[in-house]
Amino acid sequence: MPSVYVAAGSNVAPERNLASALEQIRREFRDARFSPWYRNRAVGFEGDDFINLVAGFETELPVHAVLERLRAIEAHCGRPPGAPRWAPRAMDLDVLLYGDLICDEPGLKLPRPDLLRRAYMLGPLAALAPQVVHPTQHLTIGELWQRFDRDAHPLERLEAPPAAR
C-alpha cells in the first residue's frame, strides 16, 4: 500500500480552512498524520501569508481517486474548480509523493517538481517523514531538506490550533 504525502496550504481564513481540511482528510484516510504548521510569504503573487503543512497517509486507492477526494475537500473549503493558480486560496491540496510513483501526464506530475524548490512543501515533509526516499533524487527527504537554502525561503513554525491536533 503506497504512502501518500499531500501539501496543504491556505491564505484565506487559513486556520479555519486547514482545520476543516484536516478533519476531512482524517475521515477519508483514517491513518492520516500531519506535520507541524508553518507560516510563509505568498509565492508568485502579492497576498497574505500562507499557512502550510503536509499530510501523510497510506491508501489502496489509485492516485486519480486520491486526487478526486482532495479536489472535493478543496471545494468544501471554498476553492472552486479552475481557481487561478497564482492567487489567494482558501485551500490548496497537492500530492507531493504517491509511493515511488513517477508520473508525467497532463494534470499529474509525480514526484511533484515544486517539492524540491518550495520550502513550504519540503520543510513540512521533512518534519513529518525525513526517512522517506525521493523516487528520482534517491536521497531522503531529510537529506534534501538539509541541503535546501532555508535562509532564502524562511518558514515560521506555528502551534496548530487545538481543533486541528
Describe this structure in words.
By secondary structure, the chain is α+β, with helices and mostly antiparallel strands. Helix content is 28%, strand content 24%. Helix 1 (14-28) runs antiparallel to helix 2 and helix 3 (119-128) packs across helix 4 (141-147). The strands form two sheets. Strands 1, 2, 3, 4, 5 and 8 form a six-stranded antiparallel beta sheet that branches. The protein has a two-stranded antiparallel ribbon with strand order 6-7. The protein has four helices and eight strands, in the order E-H-E-E-E-H-E-E-E-H-H-E. The longest helix is centred in the first third of the chain and has 15 residues, at 14-28. The chain is globular and about 35 Å long. The mean pLDDT is 92. It starts with a strand and ends in a 7-residue tail after the last strand. It has one domain (3-164): 2-Layer Sandwich (Alpha-Beta Plaits). Strand 6 and strand 7 form a beta hairpin.
